[in-house]
Design brief:
Two copies of one chain form a homodimer. Chain A is built from five helices and five strands. By secondary structure, chain A is of the alpha+beta class. Chain A binds a DNA duplex (30 and 30 nucleotides) through α3.
DNA sequence: ATCGTATTAAATTAAAACATTTAAGACATG
DNA sequence: CATGTCTTAAATGTTTTAATTTAATACGAT
């Protein structure tokens, strides 16, 4: 059978009942199986969802026509300016304001940025639609 | 081996080379296999990507306690008002101002909205946290 | 301490997906 | 019509994944 998601019927069923507020043991009773089984199935389902998210992220990066590398020691403001400049050069209109783009990069870079200073090299992908992603 | 996407190494490799503009036969040469193989692998990869998308859509729907359907021909302002009304009805506080919600919907709906008019039916999911998503 | 609830690891069996080859056919170009 | 490029279906051997059971652990409430 060809599924149209990366989840199995069983996994979807468990997620549905969880979303409705049922406890793991209630779900186990209803599905006629053990609590351990439900717990394991839900864990697998969440793992699959995580992988689905990572997949779409990867695809966006692959499709990104523009990649901007921010070297260490760069100031965050300069990084944002550089991203605007390179996008402009490529004819892409970035769909974020300066401050929200700065926040997005700061959040996406995690440990690679402290305060306003870039510590490790950051690669930023820019899609055709002007969406910005930190890789 | 635990992958962190729903794509295999092989599928990612093919997508990468395709994104770089290589033809199917060029990729086949580079990977030391047949054109048919590359073609089939790419097809499988795209199928997996489609399923990843459907998965996230399903999860959002499962998590959303409220779903609002906006019929065609609706004015964007009326759509936003309807969303506020339904959320209020469900005791959910929407964490967007009127204009930013309108912008969010317009952006999320893509081709389904032209100007301020809804062309195709739009389904909007509202999370417990008042986040609004166009599906 | 004993429930009730939940998570986790390990092992097992069955089902599904993967990459590949072969063969067939579509389609545009020379 | 021959050629290059690509897609598709079918068959196959291999690898992965799913669901389940059992057993162990954790933890708050009674």
């Amino acid at each position: 059978m060809t599924r149209d998601t990366v989840l199995t019927e069983r996994q979807i069923e468990v997620l549905k009942l969880k979303a409705q507020g049922l406890s793991t043991s209630e779900i186990a009773k209803r599905l006629g199986t053990t609590v351990a089984n439900v717990s394991a199935t839900e864990k697998k389902a969440r793992e699959n969802i995580r992988r689905a998210k990572n997949t779409l992220r990867l695809v966006k990066m692959l499709e990104a026509p523009l990649s901007v590398v921010i070297p260490p020691e760069t100031d965050l403001n300069d990084a944002v300016r550089e991203i605007y400049r390179r996008a402009d050069e490529a004819g892409i209109w970035i769909s974020h304001s300066f401050p929200s783009l700065a926040a997005l990069i700061q959040q996406g870079a995690g440990e690679k940025i402290r305060g306003r200073r870039v510590l490790e090299e950051i690669e930023v992908a820019i899609t055709r639609e002007g969406e910005v992603m930190v890789m």
